[in-house]
Amino acid sequence: MGFSTGVYATRDWEENYKYFCSYEDLKTIEGFQQYIEFMCRDLNTRNNGRIEPNIKKLKLNRNLE
Known about the structure:
Helix content: over 70%
Number of strands: 0
Strand content: under 5%
Order of helices and strands: HHH
Number of domains: 1
Mean pLDDT: 73
Radius of gyration: 14 Å
Shape: elongated
Number of helices: 3
């Protein structure tokens, strides 16, 4: 893992936030804050085929310690 992984992850988050921001309820800061926990959980457990879900990475890293 390195710089390229960070670039992929950042691009993935940007695309997902564009998607979430298309919802009417999420066009304000208040609406965004109301659903941020759901969005983060969804994004961190998603596997898009290019990068592992963040939760899977965390689990693997903890097993190595």
